[in-house]
Amino acid sequence: MLPPHVMSVEQAGEQYRTQLFAQCAQGIHDPDTKYGVCGIITAVVCFPIGLICLFTDTEQRCHRCGVRLDK
Ligand SMILES: [Zn+2]
């Protein structure tokens, strides 16, 4: 049997996570820009022209649920 305060912390954490994912469910995501490996390599090899590839080879993903966000 766990002491009551441990239970409340766990419940608070669970509630916090549920609230964050509830935002995702409503379409309010936490965007996180990821650069593709190809883009990074091209940017380094073909600097500075390769930077164009770097910025084309990006995708936005939600930091919380990992869903891909299309603009
Ligand atoms: Zn999300």
UniProtKB/TrEMBL annotation:
Key word Transmembrane helix present: yes
Annotated transmembrane regions: 34-55
Matches recorded under Pfam families: BRI3 (PF10164)
InterPro entries the UniProt entry points to: BRI3
Keywords, ordered alphabetically: Membrane, Transmembrane, Transmembrane helix
Keyword Membrane: yes
Protein name in UniProt: Uncharacterized protein
Organism in which the protein naturally occurs: Lentinula edodes
